[in-house]
Amino acid sequence: xxxxxxxxxxxxxxxxxxxxxxIREHDGAAQVQVDLATGRVAVESTQPAETLKAAIDEAxxxxxxxxxxxxx
Length: 72
Prior knowledge:
alpha+beta
């Protein structure tokens, strides 16, 4: 399933790497796409959105919106 997060606090490639790493710690096979300019993080994962949101929060970033889509 694809889950889209709106994330605040990302300002550089280090932030992109930190968010990606945090997600992959919970799902090593996750496909993560981060758009730094818009703060959009799209994740293809089998993990629940709540688990991934918590991982992003624990990495020090703020999730302001979560939208789940169908499996691709």
